[in-house]
UniProtKB/TrEMBL annotation:
GO CC entries: plasma membrane
Segments passing through the bilayer: 12-35, 47-66
PANTHER family, per database record: PROTEASE HTPX (PTHR43221:SF1)
GO biological process, one term: proteolysis
Keyword Cell membrane included in the entry's annotation: yes
Topology relative to the membrane: Multi-pass membrane protein
Domain Peptidase M48: 83-307
The keyword Transmembrane helix appears for this protein: yes
Protein name as it appears in the record: HtpX-like protease
Database matches in Pfam families: Peptidase_M48 (PF01435)
Requisite cofactors: Zn(2+)
Amino acid sequence: MVTTLRAALSVLLLAGFYVAAGGLVAVFLWLTVLAARAGAGAGAAKLGLLAIVVVVALLRALWLVARAKPAPDPGVELGAAAAPELWATVRELAAAADTRVPDEIRLVPEVNAAVSEDARLLGLVGGRRRLYLGVPLVQALDVAQLRSVLAHELGHYSRSHTRLGPIAYRGRAVILATVQQLSGVAGWVLRGYARLYLLVSASVSRRQELEADELSVRVVGRDVAQGTLRELPVVDTAWAFYTGTYLADGWESGLAPTARGFFGGFGELLTARGSELAEIRTQAPPQEQSVWDSHPSVAARVAAMERMPSGDVPRDTRPATVLVPGFADAATAVAEAAVRFEDRTRLEWDELTARSVATGQQRTADSVHRAAARVAGVPRGTLGTVLDLVAAGRGAELTRELGLEDPGAGESDGDEVGAGDGADEVPPVQMALHVVVRAAAAQAGAARWQHSWSGSAELVGRDGAPFPVEDVVTAAAGPGGAPAARTLLAALGVDADAVGQVEERATAHGGEVLGGIANMQIAKAHHDVVILDRGLLLVPCPKRTEGGRDRIAALLASASVVELAAQHRFVPFEDVASAAVLKRVPVKVAFTLHDGTTLELKELWSGERLTKNSDELMLGAAQQFAPETVAAR
């Protein structure tokens, strides 16, 4: 009853939004008439224009939402003949939920499960119903856990939770599309109303989640239902680790696993990292929750299940993949249909890891080689260049050029110079040597990176034994210096003068977006500036400052930072020789590059920021190259 009342309230609030918009129009028109009668023609015109703006914004939003075409069905359909036990399970759970069976089951590439329906007449008449089942979810759960997930999703239909769903969904879309077009008094009033509507809508959704959990507890038992809820964040973490550690680097470099290996690799990782996943399971379930969230926190849902009636059901511990005969083939079909491989080279995992890690290591080594070339005054740096600088006692110059004067500077992510176990305890010169020796061994073909699901890739020599990177570094930094290191390298099949720098300039590969400032003036032209941890992305933009934040967000959603850096100007921090903070509010900074050119960036008072601290990030980027900067006015 409570949920029904809240749902009705959210629909009433949705109707109220249109009433409020109409009321604003009426007020503006009334004021227009009063102003006209008082002889204030200019004021009347402005008020009339405001009324027109609100009407146009509302009609345009309605038109856009009405014309929006549904996205094509994702994934691959799984017929009853292909997965009879899965369909039997779904039929059983639908009967328990007192709702009809989905017309389709589709395997999709996300860590998720959901049921949707093409309802008609604003949700009052049901339509074609689809169950979406994520391949990674099926790989990670057992049958009992998957039953819990499916029961929850079908439970949303047991109390007609979704009857008002289309109204609420389209209403939300209209409200957001309307307020995004408005500013001033009208925008302020309607944005406040929109927040109220979204708050009530989120509250209704949270209550519906708890009601759907009741069916899950009843059909699989409290322990399984609670355990499944706790397991879902673990699966999310495992998938994020898999995509970030095993897929991302190669993906950015134009490499990908085969369609069979795309999901197959995740299954291998789940098996190999079992002890690590078990440790994650010991952590308390997530408790974070906002009034804007559509779901209660996992901790709140687990606690609520203690008060729900529980069934006494034997647990089916078989892997959920048994419900889909030939699951590996089905997962391969999903990868072919849903994953955007584009023109990437598809490789088996052993070769993919060898090539992707070597490529990433070479990019990191290139930063050392370019710095060595600048210090040595040569056009291209090689491993020999680095060895000779260290032997000549110029290692400190090299590390200063790299920004590694302080031993603590080695703390960084896996792609940065000096990254690795205990990197912060290694002298800076040795950090740089480790980087270039590893890359040189792979570049010369004397070693390759060996794939592992249970740990990091390992650099092994032609004999399969670990490549003696430490021995080479010790020789280079020791009394024998460069000659001793060259001799050892030659014996290992590496010519120090033949291997080295590959890329002329640093790229945005591996770059992370930190912030952004819209409409910065650069040489009198307006640019949206995206701040990465590796440099600045400069994108020409219109002079209009309103909507700058959304424009940057849309830009970042349209392509990866690597693709954007290829389309627009990218200034890597590696290219910066010095910088100055010219003004703090609004930000005005100048970067002098190694080629002698100066790049001055000026923030406008009316410019928008991607994040609240984007100005501080820009100042910090400049200050790291200007330690003597005096506080500007």
